[in-house]
């Protein structure tokens, strides 16, 4: 006999952080509030690959679709391999887009989603061209050029840097994201402006500062940040570096 982990569980209110993208684009960043996941995944875990019960994650994903006014099957996920792969999405997908850490679409009614728990989710939109994108920019992806590849894919659909807005979501901040000197130096060489130090004076990188610098150099003038540091907000966001076994929040973008 199997049991439903969601039975008798009433999700609390979802807390979504609005991205403030220009219409007809819309975007949000989820938090861990609401949802039906239990244990270390409390409560709005959206990841099927971290050990959470699939039934709970599926229920949480249905809640996300409902609260963003999307059809249940309209959420499209990236596989997320910490690379620079970009998938152009034209319709619903039942499986994560293979090899992709970024998704781009000009099709209304789809919710493009990346998951994170310290890495940086980035939402992009050119409302005039009608093109939106979402990217998962961790240390490897940021240094490997995932944001540049995403902008190139958007340009193929008619987007321009001058017409594009970007929103950087919750991620590990520079004061918390400690790295060995050699890794911090490698990222800094690929992403000028990302190298910094922790509060203890050890080597670290600032994903948001690096992403902002890359996007600004690419000609995007409207870059904002929301959500703050994942490690510093245990009741609000998941953090792999803080907790190890934990869930994933998300960045979602759509064309209304």
Describe it for me?
This protein is of the alpha+beta class and 256 residues long. The protein has a domain at 17-159 and 227-255: 4-Layer Sandwich (CNF1/YfiH-like putative cysteine hydrolases). 22% of the residues lie in helices and 23% in strands. The protein contains six helices and 13 strands. The chain has helices spanning 54-67, 139-144, 146-156, 181-190, 207-217, 240-243, and strands spanning 16-18, 25-30, 75-77, 86-88, 102-105, 111-116, 120-126, 131-137, 165-168, 195-197, 203-205, 222-225, 249-255. The strands form three sheets. The protein has a six-stranded mixed β-sheet with strand order 4-5-8-7-9-12. Strands 1-2-13-6-3 form a five-stranded mixed β-sheet, covered by helices on one side. A two-stranded antiparallel ribbon has the order 10-11. A hairpin with a 6-residue loop joins strand 1 (16-18) and strand 2. The termini are far apart.
